Amino acid sequence: MTPELPQYRFCPMCGSGVDTIHHEGRERQVCPSCGFVIYVNPLPATTLVVLDDQSVLLTLRAVEPRTGEWCLPGGFLEWGETLEEGAKRELFEETGLIGERFRYIGVYNSMVTFHALLHGYRVESWCGEMKCGDDAEAVQWFPLDSIPRLAFDAHEKLLADAVRLREKR
Prior knowledge:
Blueprint: E1 19-23, E2 26-30, E3 37-38, E4 43-52, E5 55-61, E6 70-71, E7 74-76, H1 83-95, E8 98-111, E9 115-127, E10 136-143, H2 153-168
Parallel strand pairs: 4-9
Antiparallel strand pairs: 1-2, 2-3, 4-5, 4-7, 5-6, 5-10, 8-9
């Protein structure tokens, strides 16, 4: 199910009310006072696959969407962060682990509450003490042959790709 496109009542630049018009081939919200076009773009996020022998590290979601479901650690980038900086921060915030080496797997489209572009990384080395953080109720290793259904389809695809790539080595 595709989330509904956010609608704005006021222009973020000047505060005037906005109109919806056909602009650049789509219906877009535009401010009639200052001309600002409100583009609603996908949000960049990072998602991490931590594999140890034949297990994967998952977090139990403590926040919506999909509270109480298992997923890969990850989250949205903060202002000014690179993808790898965001990946390191999210891994630490959710699992307590400090990522040392990352391998980029690819980008995955996720349409749940927001349209997010998940940049998937396999964490190749890490250190630290595992503990659940801000967005996680629990952090747990799962054998690859008994992984619970993950909260997001994009996480399922990323994990399958990460395992397949690891097996090719």
